[in-house]
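Q: Here's a chain of 692 amino acids. Please give me its 3D structure as tokens.
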Amino acid sequence: MDIRIIPYIPPFPAKGSHLLKEFANTGTPILDSLVRESVQNSLDAAKGVADPVRMDFVTGDFCKADLFSQCEGLEKMLKPRFPNIPSRFLAFRDYNTTGLEGNVTDMGDQNTGNYFKLVLDIGNEQTDRGAGGSCGIGKSLYFRLGVKGFVIYYSRISTCKGKYESRLIAMMVENERQKDSVIPAAENGMSKTGIAYWGVLGDDIILPVNDEDEIEEVLDIFNMEPYSGTETGTMVILPFIDEEALLNDNKSVYEIAGSELEPVWLKSVDDFLRISVQRWYFARLNNNKYKHGNPLKFFVGGKQLKSEDMVPCFRILQGLYNRAAGCKEDALNDILTDYEGVKTEDVLLGRYRPLAKKKAGALSYVLADKELLGIVPPENCYVPYIYCDTDFEENDTNVPLIGFCRKPGMVVSYETSGDWLYRVPDSADGEHFMMAMFVLNSYNGLTGTDYDLEEYVRKMEPNDHMSWVDGTFNGENYSFIKNIKSNVSKILYNVLFRGDQGESKRKMSELGKIFSWILPPEDFGRKASPRGSSGGGSTGTGTTRTSKKLKYTILSQSLKFDEVVITYCIESEKARKGFSIELLVSAADGKNISLSEWDDMGASAPFGIVKAQVSFKNIDGKSNSKIYPLTSAKSSYKDIQTGFTAEMLQKDSSPVPCLLNFEFDEAHMFKMEVKITISISSRKALPIINIF
């Protein structure tokens, strides 16, 4: 195949560094991102709505020399600087999709089909209503999976009168600013773009290969079969992958029963893919009740992931989704059939006039016991938080878990705290798990416009589609999402506070009394103040305060025996490098003193920080879901990718940890949740938390 290096001129306004940066700091594990993006692209390209879209993922070895022989100049680029580049590949293909159709010669004709959108038009917005994404950035993550961002696209499309056409083109995207960049400038004196294509040279354009024999030679390198008969679809091949690095990027380690647990699916890419597709697409996976498009069939290594192979956690969530999406109970025969306590409620925005109808969506929920979740023998499944890769802390009680999605059926995110679950208590008996699913009423129109709620939410999602936020849309400022979250949390609060009844109410009552003593409203969570200052102000759960360019809210506070657990949401008002949280003592004269000063007075420390955990929501407006645990004195966590450092320290001569430091290498805007566990050894002194 011929090579064409892209000059820095329209219609290629972007450079490789720009494209790669878009997914550099999302915090989403890259294999999770791959599943979310690739499956949604295939579902968006489905033919009709009757038959399932099939997706096949394959990993394997290939011969680098064979690939180099097919791509002009590739060996010269890679071999000198990357002599040990891996010879593993990851490929995925779909069936029952339109393939990469559209004009390949007129790049000014931007609305002709998927070829332009996927291969040439990187970074521009997805304009089709009802599509999974809106920003067009997601497909750029393909270039982050291999060592040097080399990707092969192969597709077969139906043209006219029963004829078919095959297309194959390769592409490389790299950061042209790096010292090890290998793609030269298109011409002497030009700036490098870090973007190159391999195909058939045309007049100032690169065209895909159409010759079936030449295409088959490339596919043979990876032992992949071409499409045949009436098959149409798209295959993406990602050579030069480092499987260990991909798995390490996805690695989450949990503390269970005092020891670290690494989920079994983190040991192979194939196993991870099987869990990931359930995590994000259970709404469409083998689900013939899905009513907005095609269901999904998913294969890994040639083996289908069938309904009976799905873990109970995601079969439960699929059942909740179907009920929230409007399926009648008598039309369902699933894991929740005949299970007591499955409920569905409409989420109404009754006084919010910009919507044509009151119903903004529906919420289905269930208090699932361990047997239903398969946590007990013989299945011995994990708790649902691990399958959903959400923040949780092993406890005698179980935090609630909610997922939410719109019409395409991809779960946007899972939450165990925050606005979706504000004031929602844990399931108190430790034997049940509150699991909930919110489904948007997508077709509810925005009054006075041609848009609906689906289009509003889609446009407001950040680039990685991992959260829902309100904003300006069509010249108007709406607060649909804020109201949805508030109403969802009220429904679940009523279920657990009034339904989990005696025990839950008793614990909440005790908690209020104890907090009124050891964490009094006039001091607890007071505004941050400089070191040595007495601070000031007051706050309780849910109240937002601002100090030193930081805005923070107490999301939750709970007591277990002699441990207090407090969760803050902390958000910078301006770019800053970091902040600190210090545990102080409120002395009898009303002044705040440090634990080291308390120790100097000859008194033993009445409390100390046992552990803490940071989970980001976003950095500079881009979603970031990384979690940083601090589990012992003088422990620290350094993230090279984001330049973020978290530390738990003993300040001065303090006998126990009392200081948390959080710092970036450079100033950033950020929003994060910080969960702090404080051990109470004496109730003769009051703890004060100072944020500065």
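Q: Can you summarize the key feature?
A: The mean pLDDT is 82.
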